[in-house]
Amino acid sequence: MPYELGAFPWLGVLVAAVASFALGGVWFAVLFAKPYARALGRENNPAEKPAAIFLVGPFVCGLVVATTAAIVMPLLHIDSAQGAAALGALVGLGYLGSTALNVAINPNMPRPLLYALVNVPYFFLSSIAIHVILVLLR
Description:
α4 (81-104) runs antiparallel to α5.
């Protein structure tokens, strides 16, 4: 492991996870709320308060992504904001974005391409933010 005991950047991981969660809240509830609802086939459903899993789940996932990035970045000798942004873009598009597209293209998704168009850019930007925050708060 690239960290000595107690040297893991937990503050950076927490800040990165909160940033990813906040971006998701703005992205899906404000900026793209209508297209996201349409992609899910719920554009005519009344707004309702989300269950706890829909809030806790994305935060935990952001925490896992940030923790993973904090482990991988030193192994790849990523120590600049530019390098972190490049890795974040690669991970955001290559892993997270392609997974979001894979989730979208199933028979239960009413509008798969719209779903991907809303989700992939979020994961791309969120991943860049996570990686850059980690290198800035190391």
